[in-house]
Design a protein that fits this description.
Blueprint lengths: L3 H11 L5 H8 L3 H13 L3 E4 L2 E4 L3 H12 L3 H5 L3 H7 L6 H8 L3 H13 L3 E4 L2 E4 L5 H16 L9 E5 L4 E5 L6 E2 L17 E5 L6 H15 L2 H13 L1 H4 L5 H10 L10 H8 L10
Antiparallel strand pairs: 1-2, 3-4, 5-6, 6-8, 7-8
Helix pairs in contact: 1-3, 2-3, 4-9, 6-9, 10-11
Length: 290
């Protein structure tokens, strides 16, 4: 996420305000405030320093974002804070609830920001589903796809070579074949709750608190959402059935699919209830009793 001043600073650096003094004048703020913004943009890997000169990182999503900021001077207001994360989520049409589950943002925050986006014609609504208005804002759609691809593979909090399933300011869920000194989560923690499985890789998360069963299950849903793997879906469904009393009020589109499967409804890209029940019996669970 980028603040309003961070977005303005990117525009300033791109237009030639390449040191703290000139950037401070461009932003009309103090040098200490400018140093803080510059440090934040360094940490977020939007800028770098070469021979005392502030320069923009050469990354596709940053170049597109700068085009948007230059073409529409007021766009920084809408794209600031949660704006870029919401736009990234809208690479595919989503409801507010779906955006919330993918970003960790409160639905009130999302609704407020989307209202601003609709006023500028950035986003359109079809019933309860929102999508980027590509006819009016083609570069915004291009940015969403480019930024989404970038965040799937890069996060400064995780080691190189990791597969990222979910990333927000507070949390990143990822996998890595190596044994790391990181918090295990998702399928790597199912055994702690009575379901011994071989995940095939190591699932980790970066978060500043201890995990409970709800966190671990939700993190496995992030994995399922990206991998769309039949085996992962089956294991998550069995785990859900084992601990339904503790997990039943979790809101997520994949949980909605699980309820349909447990009710005997055929859901695309899911196995049948009978097929999954054979595996569930290995863990003492009868899916037909759910």
């Amino acid at each position: 996420m980028l603040s309003k001043n961070e977005l303005l600073a990117l525009r300033g650096i791109n237009s030639g305000s390449n040191d703290v003094k000139t950037l401070s004048a461009f932003l009309d703020i103090s040098k200490p405030q400018t140093y803080k913004i510059v440090r934040s943009l360094f940490d977020k890997e939007f800028i770098f320093l070469r021979l005392g000169t502030l320069l923009i990182e050469k990354k596709a999503h940053i170049a597109i974002l700068l085009d948007i900021l230059n073409d529409s001077p007021d766009s920084y207001i809408v794209l600031s804070d949660s704006g870029t994360e919401i736009i990234r989520t809208l690479v595919e049409p989503c409801t507010v609830s779906e955006i919330s589950s993918k970003t960790g943002l409160h639905q009130t925050t999302i609704t407020r920001k989307i209202d601003l986006m609709r006023r500028m014609g950035m986003v359109k609504k079809d019933d309860i589903v929102y999508s980027i208005n590509e006819e009016m804002w083609p570069k915004l759609a291009e940015f969403a796809h480019s930024y989404d691809e970038y965040t799937k593979h890069v996060d400064p909090r995780v080691p190189f070579g990791s597969e990222i399933y979910y990333s927000s300011k507070e949390l990143v869920v990822f996998s890595n074949k190596k044994e790391l000194k990181k918090k295990r989560t998702a399928f790597s923690r199912y055994a702690d709750f009575g379901m011994n499985i071989y995940p095939g890789t190591n699932y980790y998360c970066c978060i500043d608190r201890e995990l409970d069963i709800r966190d671990i299950f939700l993190h496995s849903l992030y994995v399922v959402e990206k991998d769309n793997n039949w085996r992962s879906k089956m294991l998550a469904l069995i785990f859900y059935a084992m601990h339904k009393d503790e997990l039943i009020d979790i809101k997520h589109p994949i949980v909605d699919d699980m309820h349909m499967v447990l009710n005997g409804v055929s859901v695309e890209k899911w196995g049948t209830l009978g097929e999954m029940n054979e595996r569930a019996k290995m863990y003492g669970v009868d899916l037909y009793d759910q």
